[in-house]
Design brief:
The protein is of the alpha/beta class and 251 residues long. The chain contains 10 helices and 12 strands. Helix content is 41%, strand content 29%. Strands 1, 5, 6, 7, 8, 9, 10, 11 and 12 form a 9-stranded mixed β-sheet that branches.
Length: 251
């Protein structure tokens, strides 16, 4: 009888551990949902894109059940720190300023900033040529900060809640150009809406490291994500996802 009770206690303890482990492996991915091809909401209402595919691949490696939560870009770090999701896969640049509020994984791709403007426009990247131009950028991004630091006294900067709205104003002629991540601009230039526009000049910020953001001190999850990232790069999963979206390597 005592032996039977001991077996029951061990079984109960195992079940309890499994329940805790299962609960711990239910994670929420935060993203913006308005940044194609990295994250966007498709016609069925699903959140898709490169960021999401990479995040789900990491979840598979971690054997975690993951769901996606969207948030406006302006409030996305506060939402992470308010525990509305567990980690943030939203093409976020790793910067010293952001590192004061959140931690990051190793980079999962490298980006840069590049101007786009009408093909017919004379668009030179010097202060004299840029004088008086109206340039769009998404609010609270590296692009916006770069414009302020480098052309703040020479141009009018118009900030937008999403890149998509900046493109609408560029297409309608209300902007002379847009500065954004070069891969996002590349996607738009290859659309029907971007047919009459092109890149102008070389990238102006070409070593932009993109990482997954986590709450400060969440070291265990960060290490799990870093390990999973190495695994998907080594086994070819990353390349399969990359090739789904781009004809070049973004890693």
């Amino acid at each position: 009888m005592k032996k039977y009770k001991k077996i029951l206690l061990v079984a109960a303890a195992s079940l309890s551990f499994a329940t805790v482990s299962s609960a711990a492996d239910k994670l929420k991915i935060g993203t913006e949902g308005a940044y194609p091809p990295f994250n966007l909401i498709d016609s069925s209402g699903a959140v898709v894109g490169f960021d999401i595919d990479i995040a789900q691949a990491l979840c598979d490696k971690m054997e975690a059940e993951c769901t996606v939560v969207t948030s406006d870009w302006d409030g996305i770090i506060p939402a992470l720190n308010a525990k509305k999701f567990d980690f943030l896969a939203a093409s976020m640049s790793i910067t010293d300023e952001r590192l004061q509020a959140v931690d990051f994984t190793d980079p999962y791709y490298t980006n840069g900033l590049q101007f786009i403007a009408p093909k017919s426009s004379d668009f030179q990247l010097d202060k004299k040529s840029m004088k008086g131009k109206v340039i769009g950028a998404q609010r609270a991004t590296i692009a916006g900060h770069w414009l302020e630091d480098n052309f703040g006294n020479d141009i009018s900067i118009k900030f937008y809640d999403t890149n998509e709205n900046a493109y609408l104003d560029l297409e309608s002629g209300r902007l002379d150009g847009v500065l954004a991540d070069k891969f996002v601009n590349w996607e738009w230039l290859n659309s029907d809406a971007g047919a009459n526009f092109e890149f102008k000049g070389e990238p102006v910020f070409d070593n932009d490291k993109i990482g997954i953001a986590l709450r400060k001190g969440d070291d265990q999850l960060r290490e799990r994500l870093n390990t999973a990232l190495k695994e998907i790069v080594e086994d070819g999963t990353y390349k399969t996802i990359n090739d789904k979206y781009f004809p070049f390597n973004v890693y």
